[in-house]
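Annotated sample (chain length 382).
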Amino acid sequence: MKLLLLLSLVALSQCLVSRVTLKKGKSLRKALKEHGLLEHFLKHNPYNLASKYIPSLASTVSSEPLTNYMDMEYYGTISIGTPGQEFTVLFDTGSSNLWVPSVYCSSEACTNHDRFNPADSSTFESTNDTVSIQYGTGSMTGFLGYDTVEVGSITVSNQIFGLSETEPGDFFYYTPFDGILGLAFPSISSSGATPVFDNMMSQDLVTQDLFSVYLSNDDQSGSFVLFGGIDYSYTSGGITWIPLSAETYWQITMDGVTMSDETIACASSCQAIIDTGTSLLAAPSSAVQNIQYALGADSNGEISCSSISSLPDVVFNLNGYSFPVPASSYILQNDGTCSLAFESMDVSTESGELWILGDVFIHEYYVIFDRGSNRVGLSPLS
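Output written by the structure step:
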């Protein structure tokens, strides 16, 4: 254990490893609810998680329904330009673009967020290329530019990013983040923009071509994204490596989903994406129904809070290994009511139905996203 800690400290002392602290803030859902706007928002923004993972849209228009980020609570700070202008962003392994609001955005949604001003940066270079990211009731439109981006202690030069000029609806006003920094593959990047981590690799800014994520159970602190290295103090349980099945999202093959040694879903294998930009667990509607029935929940996923201590783990079987998620994690408690952290999403791929393992899953494991070997590493957290 001492050796692991020593290796960890040596690795983290290198200049080509950078830790970005993630802060836990109020989710968009909570903010809207506090302002009495949640019901109206949900009515006018139909929720369709599947649209985030339809590749046919990604090549021409990046589709990111705002409702996909309703429950996200973990954000970090980056800076863009010279001198740096700071932004709070969501680090999203389920998308590939970097975008922030610009001073040219006159939408009400932009007025209470940090906005990038190209005129204040001596290193900014504009382009004639436009970008459009679709939302439920409209789209974020803007243009692409190049500038210096600082992520932790890493400075990326000539990074392409989107500057919004319009943002849809008044509800963006309440989002707790300014923009999104995508960490998926270039193949799904809108407008062919090179993702931030790809530039970190090509500019030799990271020791290893990987990054890792830890989401703390602490309400406020401890969470981080580590670029270029592995913090071995979080891997005492060993690292299990799982090869990617596609170089688009962080997609892997799942052998099955079990409960008390009984297969309840994904019986003939399926696909799963590990996505920091999705808060819950998403699965085909038939699988969600099976899980609801097996756990004694109703058709809305609501369940008795008193049953948490007696319910079994839901086990995700990946590459021949078992990765359990306990009831204390897959049951959400809010204002005295309890519900399952599973949502329906029907998307088929060439290799089978698609599941999303979001933050509910990531809370249980230290996750290593390895671009150098196209694999994901999982280490159980004690």
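Annotation: Residues 1-14, 55-68 have pLDDT under 50 and may be disordered.
Annotation: Residues 2-13 form the longest helix (12 residues).
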